[in-house]
User: Fold these one by one.
Assistant:
Number 1:
Amino acid sequence: MSDAIPTVIVSRRVTPGSEKEFERWNNRLRSAAEKFPGHLGSETQPPNAAHPEHWVVLYRFATVEELDAWLTSPERTALMAEGDPFVEGPVSEQRMMEPVRSEEAVTAVMSQRARPGADAELRRFHRDVTAVMADFPGFLRSDLLDPVPGAQADHVIVFSFASRPDLDNWLDSEERRSMLDRIGPLIEGERTFNVVGGFAGWFGSNDASGAPVPWKQAVVVLIALFPTSVSLRYLQLQIAPDLPWVLGVSTLNVVAIVILNWFLMPLVTGWFGSWLRR
């Protein structure tokens, strides 16, 4: 495979009240694409802070010719006509050559609880810190996961760099220290930080089998990581509360990675396997 993947990004505004019908139709459209030669994968991104009014769908094919064959096919044309009642306004299609993600990519997870009334400001902080990280070599992406009522009270920021040296360059930077000073007044309680490595070894490589979309990977990692981090921190406070900070953090990270890599992640990815592949 080349170092870039032919990709089309399709953006649509869904007719209010037609979201369920649109999702069913969009699943049919993606299933049809899977049958075409060269199909590598697709993903749907519902409206979010980056595109608050649009549903975005990405299709990836092995070659430009195979992508064009799908886009101009009679099957797609017929399905697109069926979806007209669920879409308002023009449909935007943007073609690009998407860089292949490195399997050496490393991911960090930072969780913190927002002070009452600071949720919107924390989201603005995430947009700003992402913009700053984007200027650093190797930056891949950053996602903000909002609290889940009854399950997760913290906001979680997940960000990835192409390699561990790239991540360390960001972690050691003055820009990051400045951003940490800024986030301080927005949160309460302890801020938890873990480097959990790349997701590729847990979810499969970015090839014809199709790795899960990044936000689903992040959710599954969080499901395994959060209780692991909290439990290890509790045990450390009970067993060795006076352990030096640097030694404590490094020890907890090593133990957490061992638990995740060899015990929890194989179980969790198995439990959520069908959902990850949808």
Note: Residues 245-271 form the longest helix (27 residues).
Number 2:
Amino acid sequence: MIEKQKIIIAYHNKKKSQRTIARDLGLNRRTVARYIKDYNRKKARLLAARDNSQQEELTTDIVDPPRYDTSSRKKVKLTEEILTRIHFYLQQNEQKKKEGKCKQQRKKIDIFEALREEGFAIGYTTICNAIRRISQESREAYIRQEYAPGEVCEFDWGEVKLTIAGQSRICQMAVFSPAWSDYRWGELYSNQKTESFLDSHASFFDKIGGVYQEMVYDNSRVMVARFVGTSEKEPTEALLKLSLYYGFRFRFTNTYQAHEKGHVERSVEYLRRKIFSKCDTFANSGEARAYFQRELLSLNKKPRKNQKSAYEMLEKEKDSLLLLPPRYDTARVTEARVSRHEKSKYRKD
């Protein structure tokens, strides 16, 4: 009845064509034409009728719900009960995938045979079509977002294995990636603690000479103090104070949804591969950091296909950044090492 009403109103009142109505409502054009033709025929008969009883009968006929001839329709074998069982087996497959048992999942033929064993008279093709339809309905769609200059910048941590002073070490790479310019900047630290988090932000904002309107983070402990409910997150005091000082908004991505900060996710892998695949051995930490900054500058100034370099794009973006206040100087990041003599002294004590 709702579809019938929308079709009649759109055709007679809004003067839309049958093709437009069919496209807007997602219906077959023949269905739209049948409704309009049937309505026009009955309306003409109603206007021509002189007998009151005939008018009442035609009025009732016009506003009645559409009727369908189902006498020749075959019995549907794909019942709700079968669909429920198909969903059950697909959920079992998802659980096995999470447990690392991908090779022990049921294929379509296995689900079909299981249903036959349960007594359901159903065809293999019908099962395949149902599984395909369910998979398409549950598949997520990703829409590429468009950003304005100075609007969004993403932050993430990444590990890089280096050899420093002859010792193998895992360094933490703080990476920033603005969404509009695709400029990349980072710094190396020995840990992912709050001091490193604050220092990286202060250094990044100083480097670009401004502040982005919104920063995007994952659910790291440095940024998220605790989860409130299923989706709400409470920021840490350090992040809250940092955002208040610099005046930026912040947003957390959903759990296990790395695509929500895809710029920086790709940037971490890109910088680690492009920079440290060439050289990963250094005399000291200072040399590693200096090499990292030189290579970052080289990559950002590299011309891109049919586009300006990331460095040039950042220069254009700077006019849209928030005003930069004096450096948020709350920590000094240093590395202290105990000498061999001190180690032996502590062992004796």
Note: The first helix runs from residue 2 to 12.
Number 3:
Amino acid sequence: MRNTKDAIVIALKAVDSDPQQPAYLDTLATAYYEAGQNEKAVDAEMKALALNPSSVPYKKALEKYHSSTTH
């Protein structure tokens, strides 16, 4: 079983260390999503995508997170 609280804490530390690193924001978004915090996942993934607009995986993740907040 995954420990989503620890994952979020670790991902937040990574983002704090380098807020311009889209991979860290993507990881944070995934951790939020796994924890059921879909709106925070969308927010973090949008920030990652803003830093790397051509990333297809980020776009797909954002679509997944968006669809889970509307259901």
Note: Residues 4-69 form a domain with the Serine Threonine Protein Phosphatase 5, Tetratricopeptide repeat fold (CATH 1.25.40.10).
